Amino acid sequence: MQKKIEIKNKKAYFEYFLEEKFTAGIILTGTEIKSIREGKASITEAYCAFQNGELFVKNMHIAEYKYAAENNHELRRERKLLLNAREIKKLINRTKEKGFAIIPILLFLNEKGFAKLEIAIAKGKKLYDKRDTIKQKDVTRDLERQRI
After folding, report:
1. What is the rounded distance in angstroms from the CA atom of residue 59 to the CA atom of residue 102?
2. Which phi and psi angles does 50 have, rounded to 5°?
3. How far is the C-alpha of 20 from the C-alpha of 56, rounded, in Å?
């Protein structure tokens, strides 16, 4: 039985308002998927961008696979995302608006063992919004402590 792999971008929830989410497939090499299955990937600094009408995830770090000698992959190469044409059109239109970006939130393996990336259309938070988020987390944490 496979262990469940979920690599989250916790920073995204703090830095952005997440509007709409999509699940996309990723084109990976053999050593990349093996490293992800070991849980050795990071999407904290990753972002998505369009090139020639196709969506790519950039700056996503996947560690080298330790058993691959000279056939290893680049750590931070651009990886193509697989989406429907309708979803790509929607993303292109939303990112043309000022202040919107496409941010990866979750990297996971589905039931068939394929790597999927959950992305979201995001709008950046201002400093006072971040303070409100911290304040709300503190209040909920205090309420949970009082219940126990």
Report:
1. 13
2. -95, 140
3. 18
Name the CATH topology of 6-147: Small Protein B; Chain: A; (2.40.280)
Smallest CA-to-CA distance from 48 within 7, 110, 107 is with 107
Tell me which long-range contacts 20-23 makes (C-beta under 8 A, separation of at least 24). Answer: 20/94, 20/120, 20/121, 21/105, 21/118, 21/119, 21/120, 22/83, 22/87, 22/91, 22/118, 22/119, 22/120, 23/116, 23/117, 23/118, 23/119
Q: Is pTM, for the whole model, over 0.85?
A: no
pLDDT tens over the chain, length 148 residues: 457 888 999 898 888 889 999 999 999 988 888 889 888 999 999 999 999 989 999 999 988 888 877 778 778 889 999 999 999 999 999 988 888 999 999 999 988 889 999 999 999 888 888 899 899 999 999 999 998 7
